[in-house]
Specification:
- With about 140 residues, this protein is mainly β.
- About 5% of the residues lie in helices and about 45% in strands.
- The chain is built from 1 helix and 13 strands; from the N terminus they run βββαββββββββββ.
- The strands form 4 sheets. It has a 4-stranded mixed β-sheet, with no helix packed on it.
- A hairpin with a 2-residue loop joins β2 and β3.
- The longest helix has 7 residues.
- The protein is globular, with a radius of gyration of 14 Å.
């Protein structure tokens, strides 16, 4: 039995960014190196299809976090915001929208989980979204 779903750790791009879901998600290469050096990334099984980030607390700037079904909206009203998360996993049927004021807005997401973040679903934002997780960030996509 073959699967069309491919799992691959995010390579560290030379320009510091990776294209995902039609939006640019910028990642800090030094932080990626903490958890994603080499070719293997240790991770548990895939998150549940509707899994969303948990325990979000805005610690800088102005933003609210609202969940509706398998969609999480981060409604940011300041140009910059920082959010601490207990976990940041996005299941294959889930979506996280960063509703930022403009394309020059920035959101820093600090993940406090002892496991790598697993991104199987969609993350949308008009501006820049940064993730820090000392245990890594794992992206999966359909091919």
């Amino acid at each position: 039995m073959t699967s069309s779903k491919r799992h691959h750790p995010l390579p560290m791009p030379a320009n510091g960014g990776a294209k995902a879901c039609g939006r640019i998600i910028r990642l800090i290469p030094a932080l990626l190196a903490m958890g994603m050096t080499g070719t293997g990334v240790a991770h548990a099984g895939a998150p549940a299809p509707t899994q969303l980030p948990t325990g979000g607390q805005v610690v800088g700037g102005a933003a609210s976090i609202v969940q509706s079904g398998a969609t999480l909206n981060v409604n940011q009203s300041s140009q910059r915001a920082a959010i601490n998360w207990q976990t940041f996993n996005v299941g294959s049927s889930a979506t996280v929208n960063f509703n930022q004021p403009s394309a020059s807005s920035v959101t820093l997401n600090r993940v406090l989980d002892s496991n790598p973040s697993q991104i199987y679903g969609r993350i949308n934002a008009p501006g820049q979204v940064f993730f820090t997780n000392p245990n890594g960030v794992y992206f999966s996509w359909l091919k």
